Amino acid sequence: MANTGDILIKKKKYGDEEIDVIYRKLKPRPKMHEEINSIVKEGRMPVHLKDGYGNMPELNPRTYQVCPGIICQQDVEIVLRDGTKTYADVFRPEGDVKVPAIVAWSWFGKRPCADTPGVEFQTIGVPEGSCSPNAKFEGADPEYWCHKGYAVVNYDHRGVNNSEGDVEMTPQQEGIDAYDVIEFIAAQDWCTGKVAMGGNSGLAVASWKAASMQPPHLACIAPWEGQSDIYREMICMGGIPECGFNPYLTGQIFGTGYMEDHYMMAKKYPTINGYWEDKIAKLENIEVPAYITAGWNHFHLRGGTLGFRKIASKKKWIRIHREFEWPDQYKRENIRDLTDFYDRYLKGIRNGWESTPAVRLDVMDAYDFDFMTQRPENEFPLARTVYKKLWLNAADGLMNWEKPEEESSVRYESTKGRTTFDLRFDEDTELTGYMKLHLWVEADGSDDMDLFIAIQKLDAEGNWVPTYVLGKPHPGSAGKLRVSMRELDEEKSTDFQPYHTYKTIQKLKPGEIVPVDIEIWPTSRFWHAGEQIRVEIMGHYERIDWFEPFNYDTYNNGDHIIHTGGKYDSFLQIPVIPPKYSVGTYKYY
After folding, report:
1. For 373-383, what is the mean pLDDT?
2. Contact 121/47 with Cβ under 8 angstroms?
3. Contact 215, 196 (CB under 8 A)
4. 543-561 burial, b if ≥16 CB within 10 A, otherwise e?
C-alpha cells in the first residue's frame, strides 16, 4: 500500500491478478466547484446538490418522530462480516407493527436534506413538493412508503460519510456487504423478514449486485435505470475513457477515507482486467422477481435492457420509457405501479400484478410526441423484428437497400469534423430494438480512431427532428468505439449486438483499412413515410445544452476515412417492426 496524501494505491488480488488500485482522498465536508455552483444557480442541477449528495453530519443515534405516524431510527450501526461498521437511517411506521423493508443503497448520503432546514429535496423535471427531505437521492421516499406499510432503510455503505472503510463502486464485495445488511434488517423485531432493493441509478446498480448473491430474505428488486457493467456503460463506453462525469461524480461523494478513482484506473488500465471484471454484475445469478426500467435517452439504457434479458428470474418485467429518470421515478402513475409490485412480492397481496405485460415500451416520434405509449410486448428484443441492412455509399452520402458495387470513400477532419449518410423511407417504418453499424475505416495521420455515432431522424426537407429530454434536444441513438479496441467476443456477440472484449489494443498501420462493428444502444422510434434516417459519424462527443458534464479523452489526429461499396460492405443494420395487423392502408402496431 502506498499513500501520498490525497492519493492511495492498494495492491489487490482479483483471481490470479494483482492490480494496483488507485484511490483518492474523500472530502469530509461537501464543497462544490464554482462551475457546478453556477449550474445550480441557473436551475440546471438538483437543488439538494448545493450541499452535495448528503451533508455528512456527526453520528447521532436517536429515535424521533419524522411526522405523524412515522419514526426514524437514526444512525443504526450495522457491522459487516469483516467487522466494518456502517450506518443506516431506518424510517418505519410508528407503533408495534411488523413491516417489510425497502433498502436505498448507494454512495449518496442517507440524509441529503433532513439536516438542512429550508432546503427542499428536488431534482430536475420533478415538480416542487413531490418528494420529502427524508428521501435519499434517487431513492424511495419514506413519507410515502411508510404510510403504505413499509420501512425505508437509507444506507451509507462502506466508506460513505461516517461508515468505515474506503468507497468502491460496484465490486463483488458490494454484493457481499448487501447480503449482510439485508439479513441484518430481516432479523429486526419490526421487520416481517421480507426485504427489497430499489431506486434509480447507483441504487439500481447495487440491486444487481445484491440479488446476484442470493441473500435468503431478499424478496424482490426494482432496479430502475441501472448499469450492469460500468466499464462498458459508464467509465469507458466503446473503450473511450469518460473524463467529465466520472471525475465529477467522485468529487460529490464524501467520507473520512478514500474512494476508487475510476478515471485514473481507466487511464492506467484501459483494457478489461480482473479489476473491471469484478464490477460486472452476475446477472445470471438473479432469481428473485424484478421490476426494471430503462430510458431510451439515458446512459443507463444498456444496463437495464441487458439486465432484463440476462437475469434468471422467471418473474421479470421491464418498462422502457422516453423520460429522463427523475421525472419518471416520481410520476404518480409510476409510483402506484411500483406499489403494486412491492405489495405483491413483499406483502403477498393478490393484486393482479401478474397480468402486467412483461415489456411495456414508448415508441417515440418527434420532440415530446410519442407514436405509442407503454405498448405491451412479450419480450425484448421483439420476436417479430425483421433486421435489414442499409448500405452506405460514400459517393453520394446516402444509404440504399442494395449494396453499391463501386468502391468509394469519404474523409473528415477527426477532431471536429463529421460525415453523414441518409435514407428516405417510402413507407411508415417503426424501428425498435438494437442497431449496429458495420464500417470499413482508415486513419490518415494517426494510429487510432475514436468514433462517435448518432442515429437521427430528418423530416422530408432534411431538417433534424430530435426527441426532447427534459426539454432539451437529444442527439440520437448513440454508439461509440475506439478502433484499436475493435476485437469482438464471438461467443457473446449476437447478430444484433456486437460485444467487444476490450482486452487487446490493435493499433492501425499507415494505409490500413479495417472493419469495425459498433454497438448502437437500443431505441424505439417511428418514421412516417417521406421522413429520413441519418447516420452521423464523427470523432468527438456532442451534446447540446446538457447539465451532466460528460466528456471523453479522445485519441484523434489527422483525418478519418470511411470506405464503402464493393469489397467494403459498410452498412447500418436496423430493427424493423412490422405491424401486428394490417388491412389496406390501415396498420396496427
Report:
1. 97
2. yes
3. no
4. eeeebebebbbbbbbbbbb
Mean pLDDT, to the nearest integer, of 506-522? Answer: 97
> How long, in residues, is the chain?
589
| Dihedral over Cα of 208, 171, 492, 301: its sign | positive
Residue-wise pLDDT for 191-205, tens only, equals: 999 999 999 999 999
pLDDT tens per residue across span 422-465: 999 999 999 999 999 999 999 999 999 999 999 999 999 999 99
Q: Where are the beta strands (DSSP E) in 131-286?
A: 151-156, 191-200, 218-224, 258-260
CB 191 within 8 A of CB 153: no
Which residues, at least 6 apart from 478, have a Cβ–Cβ distance to it below 8 Å?
A: 452, 453, 454, 455, 520, 521
Retrieve residue 36's grid coordinates. Answer: 457546478
Q: What is the DSSP letter of 159?
A: T
Per DSSP, the residues of 461-524 read TS-B--BEETTEE---EEEEEEGGG--B-TTT--SS---B------PPPTT--EEEEEEEEEEE
Q: What angle do CA 306, 311, 313 make, to 5 degrees?
A: 140
Please tell me the distance from the alpha carbon of residue 158 to that of residue 161, in angstroms, as a whole number. 9
Provide the mean pLDDT of the chain. Answer: 92
- Cell numbers for 496, please give them: 444484433
- State the cell numbers at 353: 400484478
- Three-class HEC string of 430-459: EEEEEEEEEEEEEEECCCCCEEEEEEEEEC
Identify the band that residue 384 occupies on the pLDDT scale cut at 50, 70 and 90. Answer: very high
Q: For 26, phi and psi rounded to 5 degrees?
A: -80, 155
Model pLDDT, residue 51: 40
| Cα torsion through 378, 379, 385, 387, rounded to 10 | 180
The letter for the amino acid at 185 is: I
For 274-305, write each residue's pLDDT tens digit: 999 999 999 999 999 999 999 998 889 999 99
Kindly report the backbone phi and psi dihedral angles of residue 372, in degrees, each rounded to the nearest multiple of 5, phi listed first. Answer: -145, 150
Residue 495 CB coordination number (10 Å): 9
Q: The C-alpha cell of 54 is what?
A: 448528503
Amino acid sitting at position 412: Y
- The strand pairing partners of 12, in sequence order, are 19
pLDDT in tens, 24-41: 998 775 444 444 444 444
End-to-end CA distance of the chain: 60
Helix (H, G, I), strand (E, B) or coil at 173: helix
